[in-house]
Amino acid sequence: MQPINEMNLEFSSKSRNESFARVVAAAFVSQLDPTLEELADVKTAVSEAVTNAIIHGYENRDGLVKMNCKLYNNSVEITISDEGKGIENISLARQPMYTSRPDMERSGMGFTVMESFMDKIEVVSELGKGTKVTMFKTFKSIK
Amino acid sequence: MKVKISYKGTILIASLEGELDHHSAQYVRQKIDSELMKSSNRDMILDFSKVSFMDSSGIGVVIGRYKNIQKLSGKLIIINLNNQVRRIFEMSGLLKIIPVYDNLEDAIKNVKGNKNAAYK
Predict the structure, then answer these.
(1) Where in this chain does the record put each STAS domain (chain B) (predicted)?
(2) Residue ranges of domains in chain A, CATH in brackets
(3) Looking at beta carbons, which residues of chain A come within 8 Å of B33?
């Protein structure tokens, strides 16, 4: 299926860009006219994925985070990727309450929030190469 | 994100304003912890009425403050959660251990009620 619209964004792995990325994603997705709650779901999921890239992928060092958004008639596909350290054990990382950084007061809920607020997420990661998280959501309010 | 500090009697009230994410979490932590350290108050109400966005970083902040206050034998209460924020709290299981109220008056009554019960 061909997307009806697509955009790419690339930004530095700075924590102040977390809000920038989620606002851009929400602005792009709002073209489909989803409900405010659906938009908030997308914002939250993007915020989680971008935060993971900055904290875990790049471990707060300099790097680039990429975001790709594809819009379909009533759905969105968003990919957040980094070229950071990668995830050793993806299934462990996706478990609720698991965090590799308990020292940072992380809740370990990032992937759980993404999974709950979006319909499906796919995680591809390679140690030393980076991580790519793709999230899908169909907006039920749009027929 | 702004953190407004006020007191109702001996209860510290921290009102959060804006978006609570990983970026703003550090400031919120420092602001609240330094206030807790300089006062002898042990009970805190976290007011979320002006939080327009929160992700799971906010859960980390609340769990951290909850642990600190528990060490002081104080009580933490949360008030005024909007729907988006409430969903994240529900997901984390925090609502099972931290009381949540819809307004400040009820939260204050709860803190005082518990204190009275403890003195008996």
Answers:
(1) 1-111
(2) 5-138 (3.30.565.10)
(3) none
pLDDT tens by residue, B30-54: 999 999 888 777 899 999 999 999 9
Q: How far is B66 from B96, CA to CA, in rounded Å?
A: 13
A104 touches B: beta carbon within 8 Å: yes
Question: For chain A, where are the E strands, in sequence order?
Answer: 5-12, 64-71, 75-82, 120-126, 130-138
Separation between Cα atoms, residue B20 and residue B51, nearest integer Å: 7
Give me the long-range contacts of B47-50 (CB less than 8 A, separation at least 24): B47/B13, B47/B14, B47/B15, B47/B16, B47/B79, B47/B80, B47/B104, B48/B16, B48/B78, B48/B79, B48/B80, B48/B81, B48/B82, B48/B85, B49/B15, B49/B79, B49/B80, B50/B15, B50/B16, B50/B17, B50/B18
Q: Are A135 and A113 in contact (CB under 8 A)?
A: no
Give the helix/strand (H/E) hosting B4.
strand B2-8
Q: Which residues contact B102 (CB under 8 A, 6 or more apart)?
A: B79, B80
Q: Do A51 and B22 touch (CB under 8 A)?
A: yes
C-alpha pair distances (Å), B97 with each of A18, A113, B63: 29, 20, 10
Torsions phi, psi for A124 (to 5 deg) = -120, 130
The tally of domains found in chain B comes to: 1
Number of A/B CB contacts below 8 angstroms equals 63
ipTM of the complex: 0.93
pTM for the structure as a whole:
0.94
Q: Are B32 and B15 in contact (CB under 8 A)?
A: no
Q: What's B9's domain CATH number?
A: 3.30.750.24
The residue type of A143 is: K
